[in-house]
Amino acid sequence: MASSPGSNGKYNGKVNGKIVSLNLGSTNPGNINLEVEIAGIKFKNPVIAASGTYGFGREFAEFIDLGRLGGIAVKGLTLKPRKGNRPPRIAETPAGILNSIGLQNPGVEGFINDELPFLRKCNTAIIANIAGSTVEEYCELAEILSGTDVDAIELNVSCPNVKEGCLAFGNTVKGISGITREVRRYCKKPLIVKLTPNVTDISEIARAAEINGADAISLINTITGMAIDVHKKKPILANNFGGLSGPAVKPIAVKMTYDVAQTVKIPVIGMGGISSGEDAIEFILAGACAVMVGTWNFVYPDACVKVLEGIIKYLGIYNHKSVYDLVGKLELN
Amino acid sequence: MPLVLKEEIIFNKELVPGIFELAFISEYVSQRAKPGQFVNIKCCDGLDTILRRPLSICSVNRKNNTVIVAYRETGKGTRYLARKKAGDKLDLIGPLGNWFHVSDEYKSIAVVGGGIGVFPLLFLLQQNPCAFKGAYIGFESNTCIVMEKEFLHCSDKIMLATNDGSKGFKGFVTDLLALNLLQEGSKGKINGEKYDIIYACGPMPMMKKVFELASKMGIKCQVSLEQRMGCGIGACLACACKVKHDGDWHYKRVCKDGPVFWGEEVDFDG
Ligand SMILES: Cc1cc2nc3c(=O)[nH]c(=O)nc-3n(C[C@H](O)[C@H](O)[C@H](O)COP(=O)(O)OP(=O)(O)OC[C@H]3O[C@@H](n4cnc5c(N)ncnc54)[C@H](O)[C@@H]3O)c2cc1C
Ligand SMILES: Cc1cc2nc3c(=O)[nH]c(=O)nc-3n(C[C@H](O)[C@H](O)[C@H](O)COP(=O)(O)O)c2cc1C
Ligand code: FES
Predict the structure, then answer these.
(1) Nearest residue in chain A measured CA to CA from B76
(2) Among all residues of chain B, which has the CA nearest to that of A236?
(3) What per-residue confidence (pLDDT) applies to A9?
(4) Digit-coded pLDDT (tens) for A56-108
């Protein structure tokens, strides 16, 4: 597919050798339906900002209208404020980054008092991402947030960057079953369980989450990794290890999204290395009905909008009327 | 408010081996930038280096909308940058970060810069209308001295140090500062002028020393910090620096709460 996005919303290009000319309009041309529904919540479009890469939206509001996003998953929240890890907290690696922020956040009360009122005004779905070090903490977080007007709760059982290790809940069938079952009892909001890729068989983990009450699955969180400064003979990150994200992880994430979508019936939200509309379409074809954009927001603060525009363009070119025309429509060779 | 911009490069020249001066046209940045702020540059188009590289704004010409940054070729990112030519587009976000505190009450200021830390201080001197401006600048050796002329041009007194003594004072720029501040004895007087504030940028141990000297003399002190960044706009919390807070401490963001901090806030050993 050769393409040249023309001026004023016109698109002229070649699709499978055929010349096409489309009028893309401003955000949504013609009668394409971008809406997706996940666990009863309607997202106006399938592009959601990934947790931890978007803060609480404020910084990005300087660059884009947050109302254009399908949703925002906020920075991982804990019961008490957390200071986070020692710096350096980030290292660049080939086509990716390693991070070990260590869940620095203002705590759930700080979020509710100081951040949620602003987010609520932004006309986009708000997903609260939560992390704890015990099952009880997760339950308490879910209970507190169920009393607010967030749209959904995303269970981060896969953060590799804190010592107490919420990763421990996410990497065994037993762990994920227990935590999903318990949190489900306290969670009155749609519950999204976010999976770690640091497992042997992600499908069985996804299945365990589904059986125990998850309304949706999101994946992947970061892949554990390490980068070494050979001159200092030390890891670059003060925390020694970190989580890998960005374009480097995309093929892994697409395969895992495919595997999980094949296994569960609940909706799947795919992420990992998305930097364009076509990247997002890969995840959707693999079975995701929405995507999250993370690391690429650091490179281009308007990345989410660009991904959305790319999706719209793709749908237009191939004459699809809805995102659902594509979900899982991959044809294997 | 920062913007994502694609601006045209006017020149990109090597001043001394490994150190470059790059000028670009940007009405947006030139009209808004304040001394201490930085721009975050995407050094290559593809995926080879994905993160942007922060560079301080070194000088601005508001009449012809020129912005200058200067950088040391350090690794992959700055190596890509060094290959850019006049006419190429520069993909940048800016202006970013906070800025040095300036006030009519500061009649006499000093800047203390080490190595690539001198660049934001030049912009500060250029923009600052105060009565007396002292510049202390330090480099490894004679062969890495850059922008000496520019510093001369916008300061009332310039003091230069090289670690190996190949030009100016032999030793650290902080030793030179100490000599001058302490020599005069009472309250940091130099040539009869008392510094109301000292601004420092350079390696952490250097800034620590400057702050210690300044506080000993009862002089205000601001420092400009560096940290590895993710987003550069305040969202990812990658660029943490340890800051004292109500008898305790917490992490602030170098990119948004900084890069400029008051000396007494900073935990220099954190
Ligand atoms: C606010 C601020 C202002 C700066 N101003 C200047 C300036 O005016 N002139 C100048 O020469 N340098 C400046 N630096 C340092 C400059 O950003 C780094 O030298 C540059 O990012 C190195 O990139 P690289 O790819 O060449 O090196 P690599 O070592 O290959 O970079 C790898 C990663 O580490 C990061 N990194 C490496 N060194 C530093 C550093 N010292 N500070 C922050 N991140 C680093 C890079 O951004 C990149 O993400 C500034 C840094 C900050 C934080
Ligand atoms: C700096 C940073 C911080 C992150 N913090 C969180 C977090 O708090 N909670 C969470 O569930 N995921 C967190 N993630 C993971 C992302 O949400 C996402 O799963 C991952 O980065 C893969 O997507 P990407 O390649 O598009 O970034 C973080 C990622 C990065 C890069
Ligand atoms: S670099 Fe992201 S918060 Fe500073």
Answers:
(1) A92
(2) B228
(3) 46
(4) 999 999 999 999 999 999 999 999 999 999 999 999 999 999 999 999 999 99
ipTM here: 0.94
Going by their DSSP bridges, the two strands A216-219 and A191-194 should be labelled as parallel
Residue B193 contacts by C-beta under 8 Å, 6 or more apart in sequence?
Answer: B108, B132, B134
Q: Which ligand is nearest to the CA of B147?
A: 1
For chains A and B, CB pairs below 8 A equal: 99
Count of other CB atoms within 10 angstroms of residue A270: 30
What does CATH list as the number for B4-96?
2.40.30.10
Q: Is A159 a catalytic residue?
A: yes
Domains in chain A with CATH codes: 1-30 (no CATH), 32-325 (3.20.20.70)
The whole-angstrom separation of Cα A53 and Cα A218 is 15
Predicted model pTM: 0.94
3-state class of B23 per DSSP?
strand
Helix axes A173-186, A135-146, angle to 10 degrees: 30
Tell me the chain B residues in contact with residue A87 when contact means C-beta distances shorter than 8 Å: 227-228, 238-241, 251
Strand pairing category for B260-262 and B220-224: antiparallel
> Any bridge partners for residue B5, and if so which?
B92
Q: Using the 8-state DSSP alphabet, how is residue B68 labeled?
A: E
Peptide bond just before A220 cis, omega within 30 deg:
yes
First to last CA, chain B: 30
Q: Which residues of chain A lie closer than 8 angstroms to B74, CB-CB?
A: none
* Tokens of residue A81, six digits: 């404020």
Does residue B269 surpass a pLDDT of 70? yes
In chain B, what are the domain boundaries?
A: 4-96, 108-224
Tell me which of 3.40.50.80, 1.10.10.10, 3.30.530.20, 3.40.50.2300 is the CATH number of domain B108-224: 3.40.50.80
Tokens of A200: 């042997």
Residue A20 pLDDT: 54
In terms of DSSP bridges, do strands A18-23 and A290-293 run parallel, antiparallel, or are they unpaired? unpaired
Ligand sitting nearest the alpha carbon of A96: 2
The DSSP secondary-structure symbol of B263 reads G
**Environment class of A278 (CB within 10 Å of its CB; exposed 0-12, middle 13-18, buried 19+):** middle
Q: How far is CA B167 from CA A19, B66, B157, B164, in A?
A: 67, 31, 16, 8
> Which residue's alpha carbon is at the smallest distance from atom 17 of ligand 1?
B54
Phi, psi angles (nearest 5°) of residue A270:
-105, 145
Instruction: Specify whether the CB–CB gap between B154 and B180 falls below 8 A.
Output: no
